[in-house]
Specification:
Layout lengths: L6 H9 L4 H11 L4 H9 L6 H12 L5 H7 L2 H12 L9 H13 L9 H11 L3 H7 L7 H12 L10 H13 L6 E2 L12 E2 L13 E7 L5 H10 L6 E7 L7 H8 L5 E5 L6 H9 L6 E4 L5 E2 L3 H11 L5 E9 L13 E11 H8 L9 H13 L4 E12 L10 E2 L2 E2 L1 H18 L19 H4 L7 E9 L11 H10 L4 E5 L15 H9 L3 E2 L6 E8 L16 E10 L15 H12 L3 E5 L2 H9 L32 E5 L11 H7 L7 E5 L2 H8 L8 E4 L4 H5 L4 E3 L12 H8 L3 E4 L4 H4 L4 E2 L5 H9 L2 H16 L4 H11 L11 H5 L7
Parallel strand pairs: 3-4, 3-6, 4-5, 8-10, 13-14, 13-16, 14-15, 16-17, 17-18, 19-20, 19-22, 20-21, 22-23, 23-24
Antiparallel strand pairs: 1-2, 6-9, 7-10, 8-9, 11-12
Length: 841
């Protein structure tokens, strides 16, 4: 056991029951600090943290242990997840050696274990980056990779740039050209000369066909402070087999020192025209400017440091000429450095090239307007809008590699991406436009975007202006997990809505508990996106400056794993952390969160001492016993539940009571067995039993057995509709992580159901529920079914509970008090909304 690793990390590693690859992807996504130790413990059967795991794996590389013996030391899937995590964290020096060593160790221990689809590619890429060329050459015959990756590896091993013995230009170029020639494309050559190899790329293109009868194609190329690559980019267009071109090179206010390069490009051919912007506005403002001046029936783009294959435009024009319903085409590209290295760790060799978009100008622009004039990412938005409006079949996407995209240090996108991680602004922008597109698809919004009009959807401030955005102010910032499908955070959007309607300026920030981690990134719930689009809240990014009167952390597990302090720019006058459940589990006593370390993480990230807000006195005692040193406020439940109070007129099921349950959540050990459900839910036909759960989960619960005939499974239908059907709600206890204010029980009570719960929930619900123990749920149901007066009284006790601390009014008053605001003092701060450009471009 590695005592240097905090106890709560060791407890999580032993009890999470999560796929290690999902954990690795979540740790990469949120740049978590402690994630290395967590996955290292899983990789070593709980014995070692990261440093010791790495040392042990490196020792394994020099040993002659059998696979069976090595498996006693390492779990191959978790070790692969750890290697994957390191591939996304090479540091500023881009040192992939540790990831490479771990990948090599995985090969020694994996045996017949199936790894992730890209494990072989990562093994090759990290070892090439670490200079382990002989190793990569040795595993190449058995390397499990796609054809494109195999081409990349074989070609990289021949690249003379690495100085390997026997590597020469001719064999390398022959291997590189296999990529083009396999699809019947012309090969490239790189003649000797000055400058970078990328800028010397050429082809022996045949004589170009006559431009007669070819529709005019306008290619727009934006540039700012260009270098020698501009000439090569323009030359690659001039050598196209499609001759009828208008090439608009548009300069974004480069200093006069770059005039010579720009004029040289313009002088290359009469088809090239140099235009200049009146002020610096970015690529997409340039595209709108140039599209308004374009003469071509078709319009396309090229970046000023990329190279187009001479057949690109001809190939991409073919489907546009053949099919009227085809409105646009795109192709793929190979990403290479200026010295023609073609590996980028973590990414596929070829990618869809957004700047290759070529479309029918009048038809598309008449419907869509123009590009969103933000600084980044609007090409993806525009392409997705075409697909949304005209259908995916309207864009022909070639798998052909028709361009080489140059990886340069100054690229606008390089600092926004690395393997497994996207800058929060990129994520927020994609989520915002995706929500707008969803409204377009439903017919609720027009797809026409007029750049001079009010913004159609919000955008991060750093996308609207050049440079780092200024810090903004708001009254309350809520930090929670805003994804859908996680019961603990169900209804959180109501809190935002209640505070906004009370006059507070609001912001929300996404955090993720490792317990609910997924491999894929998911957008916030539609309710949050709707509030954001309406201006009732902004989505604050961890890395962009925001100051709030009050920051509330809705769950201590959200701060279990800290972020790098220098990446957090959120600040508060007051920081309150809601503790809705004890820090130790009730049965085994392991730590779900360490109060002292959560306090430290909170202070390190927000720069202020936090306070605890426990749901009840038992949790307050748990915090003190667990080492909490910061102030603990008076216990209180936090949340907003809409009350559906109705006069009691009898059971909804009349003579046959309707009994329901839901909330079969992770971890799997908390899902009930069929046997335990039979103990809770009556299996006699005089009861109508309804279970709201996914078919997949129910299949796991019943484990091949039949459900009683009076049980009906409703596959995740609308919660309000479900609870509105019931007379009784029977809760399923979550044992492994401790009891908390169950969202399902609260919703059921608010809908007038009588809630029957395990006694563990009594401190949360008090008289609002009835508890099993001395009586079974069936006995309670029978008693109240036969006593409508007592049923009505219990229903009223539940209504009163929801009308208390959980009402909108009570919640708003409480939060305003925490924020130091009297009701008349709260005002909506324009800056909180302007920060995302919700009102103006």
């Amino acid at each position: 056991m590695d005592e240097s690793v905090p106890q709560y990390v060791r407890d999580l590693a032993a009890n999470l029951q999560k796929n290690s690859l999902a954990l690795a992807d979540a740790v990469l996504r949120y740049d978590s600090v402690e994630g290395l130790d967590l996955i290292a413990l899983m990789a070593t059967h709980g014995r070692m943290g990261y440093r010791r795991t790495l040392e042990s794996a490196q020792q394994l590389l020099d040993s002659d242990l059998s696979v069976k013996s090595a498996r006693e030391l390492f779990d191959p899937l978790a070790l692969s997840a750890l290697a994957r995590l390191l591939a996304g964290r090479p540091g500023d020096e881009l040192d992939f050696s540790e990831s490479a060593d771990l990948h090599r160790a995985v090969r020694l221990v994996r045996g017949d274990v199936n790894l992730s689809f890209d494990a072989g590619r990562l093994e090759a890429q990290t070892n090439l980056a670490a200079g382990n060329f002989d190793y990569v050459e040795g595993i190449l015959p058995v390397l499990d990779v796609d054809d494109d990756t195999r081409w990349m590896v074989e070609t990289e091993l021949l690249n003379p740039i690495y100085g390997r013995p026997g590597s020469r230009m001719v064999p390398w170029l022959e291997s590189f050209n296999r990529l083009f020639q396999a699809d019947g494309l012309l090969p490239i050559s790189i003649p000797a000369g000055d400058g970078e190899p990328f800028d010397r790329i050429t082809t022996n293109a045949p004589d170009m066909v006559s431009a007669v009868d070819q529709p005019l194609v306008t290619i727009i190329m934006s540039t700012f402070e260009p270098d020698g690559s501009l000439r090569g980019a323009v030359q690659s267009l001039l050598k196209q087999t499609w001759r009828n071109l208008e090439i608009l090179v548009v300069d974004d206010c480069s200093p006069s020192a770059f005039d010579a390069i720009l004029h040289e490009a313009e002088a290359l051919d009469d088809r090239v025209e140099l235009l200049r912007m009146s002020h610096n506005g970015g690529t997409y403002k340039i595209r709108n400017f140039a599209m308004a001046r374009a003469k071509g029936e078709f319009v396309g783009f090229q970046d000023s440091d990329d190279w187009s294959h001479p057949e690109r435009i001809e190939r991409q024009m073919a489907p546009l000429l053949e099919r009227d319903e085809c409105l646009a085409s795109m192709s793929r590209a190979v990403r290479v450095t200026s010295d023609m290295r073609s590996r980028l760790v973590g990414y596929g060799t070829l990618r869809q090239n957004a700047s290759s978009l070529l479309f029918r100008r009048r038809h598309v622009l008449a419907k869509l307007g123009g590009y969103d004039e933000v600084r980044k990412a609007a090409d993806s938005e525009f392409i997705h809008r075409i697909e949304t409006v005209f259908g995916e079949e309207s864009i022909e996407v070639f798998r052909l590699p028709l361009a080489l995209v140059q990886l340069t240090g100054g690229s606008l996108s390089r600092s926004d991406f690395r393997f497994g991680w996207h800058h929060g602004a990129r994520v927020a922008y994609r989520e915002a436009y995706s929500y707008w597109h969803k409204l377009i698809e439903r017919g609720q919004e027009s797809p026409f975007l007029d750049p001079s009009a009010e913004r159609r959807f919000v955008a991060p401030m750093r996308f609207l202006n050049k440079g780092e955005p200024a810090s903004v102010e708001c009254d309350v910032l809520l930090v929670s997990d805003w994804r859908s499908g996680i019961g603990r955070y169900f209804g959180a959007a109501r809190e935002v809505e209640a505070l906004s309607e009370a006059g507070l300026s609001m912001a929300v920030t996404q955090a993720e508990s490792i317990r609910f981690s997924l491999r894929r990134r998911e957008a916030p719930t539609e309710s949050i996106m709707e509030l954001r689009a309406s201006g009732m809240t902004k989505i604050a990014l961890w890395s962009e400056g925001l100051h709030a009167r009050l920051v509330m952390i809705r769950d201590p597990e959200l701060l279990n794993f800290s972020r790098a302090v220098d990446t957090v720019k959120l600040r508060a006058d007051r920081l309150v952390m809601v503790a809705g459940y004890p820090c130790r589990t009730p049965e085994s006593g392991w730590l779900t969160y360490d109060p002292a370390l959560v306090e430290k993480h909170a202070f390190d990230m927000f720069g202020i001492e936090p306070e605890w807000l426990p749901a009840h006195s038992g949790i307050a005692d748990s915090l003190r016993a667990g080492g909490a040193a910061c102030p603990i406020l008076a216990p209180r439940s936090v949340g907003v539940v809409p009350l559906r109070r109705k006069p009691f007129t009898g059971l909804r099921g009349a003579g046959r009571p309707i009994v329901g349950t839901t909330g079969f959540e992770h971890p799997p050990k908390d899902r009930p067995s069929l046997e335990s459900l039979r103990e809770l839910l009556p299996d006699h036909d005089k009861y109508d039993v309804r279970i709201r759960a996914s078919a997949e989960v129910v299949d796991k619960v019943r484990n091949g057995e039949r459900l009683p005939p009076n049980w009906l499974v409703l596959d995740e239908n609308d919660p309000s509709e479900f609870f509105g059907q019931l007379d009784f709600f029977v809760g399923v206890r979550m044992r492994s992580w401790g009891s908390e204010l169950s969202w399902a029980a609260i919703e059921a009570i608010a809908h007038g159901c009588v809630a029957i719960l395990d006694p563990a929930y009594e401190e949360h619900f008090g008289a609002a529920a009835i508890y099993t123990g001395s009586r079974s749920a069936r006995d309670i149901i029978d008693q109240l079914t036969n006593n409508p007066v007592e049923f009505s009284r219990q229903q009223e006790r539940g209504y009163d509970f929801c009308a208390g601390e959980l009402s909108r009014e009570s919640y708003s008053r409480f939060m305003m008090t925490l924020a130091g605001l009297a009701p008349q003092d709260s005002t909506v701060r324009d800056s909180a909304h302007q920060a995302e450009g919700s009102n103006q471009s």
